[in-house]
Amino acid sequence: MMRSLYPLIALLCVILLSPVTYGADELSPFRLRFCVEETEYPPFNYFVRQDGIKTSTLSGYDIDLLERTFKPIGIDYEVLALPWLRCLKDVQNGSIDAAMSASLNRQRATDYIPSIAYYYLTPSYFYLKAELDPLFHIDDINQLAHFGKVCGIKGFNYDNFGWRKETPLSEIHSLGHLPEMLLKQRCKFFLARKEILAGTLALAHAAQLPQALASKISPNAQQEAFYMLISKHSAHKELIAHEFNRQVKTMQENHQLETLYQFHIQKLTHGDDKGSNSL
Q1: Residues 244, 250, 251, 255: is their CA dihedral positive or negative?
Q2: 262 within 8 A of 191, measured Cβ to Cβ
Q3: Is the distance from CB of 192 to CB of 156 less than 8 angstroms?
Q4: pLDDT, tens digit only, all 279 positions of the chain
Q5: Do residues 47 and 57 touch, judged by C-beta distance below 8 A?
Q6: Is 34 left (phi over 0), alpha (psi -120 to 50) or beta?
Q7: Cα–Cα distance measured from residue 136 to residue 138, given in angstroms and rounded to the nearest whole number
Q8: 56, 73, 76, 143: which could form a disulfide with 138 (CB 3.0–4.6 Å)?
């Protein structure tokens, strides 16, 4: 009698132990994948320097925020540095779960799931002081194109600067090269978010350049919000959005986001990451 019950008992064990209930898939191992711009976007993401030499280790505001979000709840993840257009494409098709440090426009709001805003930057333009009259003024940022070549980064979104797509923009691949393009007179102006310039110059060891540069806020532009863009095809999109937004709100309420930003600015301009003690 007992022998005839063994197959039935074994079958019941298989049924009871099988992950057929709703939500059981969430218990299986998985690794989230995030991407950032490979040419660096300091202080939000950049490569650590050792004795002035660039390593493959990522650091920055974004990197710390991801760690504070997912490490305490035991979720594995990795951060990949990719060309920005590839980063966005891979998130859109679902091979990567989300992109960090992205501005928003109508198309991106359609293509991705944006997180809540987790920092704000100031759309600005830069030029060499010696090249223009101190009273130089424009009422519309597109007017810059009448005075000389305007440069920006390939794949970056300048909609919130007020820049129109039909206005000529010379695109280069690396933010760190923009100041150099001015010095070599390959650009008259460059477009950038004001708050990232200090970190960019620190990484480039461009100690004297800030004194030579003039910067002005783009006319009629407001501070620009930046987001995590989550893939609509990610199997974990709800989890990512919920946990990331929850962490951002908590850190906002405790004024920890500004502290984190200032930490990385100081680290870049006065710490080991730039391989020098002064800018």
Answers
A1: positive
A2: no
A3: no
A4: 444 444 444 434 433 333 332 233 444 479 999 999 998 999 999 999 888 788 999 999 999 999 999 999 999 999 999 999 999 999 999 999 999 999 999 999 999 999 999 999 999 999 999 989 889 999 999 999 999 999 999 889 999 999 999 999 999 888 778 777 888 899 999 999 988 877 787 787 765 666 788 889 999 899 999 999 999 999 999 999 999 999 999 999 999 999 999 999 888 877 654 433 322
A5: yes
A6: beta
A7: 7
A8: 143
CA distance 127 to 188: 6
Task: Give residue 48's region: left, alpha or beta (phi > 0; psi -120 to 50).
Answer: beta
- Helix or strand (DSSP H, E) at 79: strand 76-82
CA angle 152, 78, 31 (to 5 degrees): 135
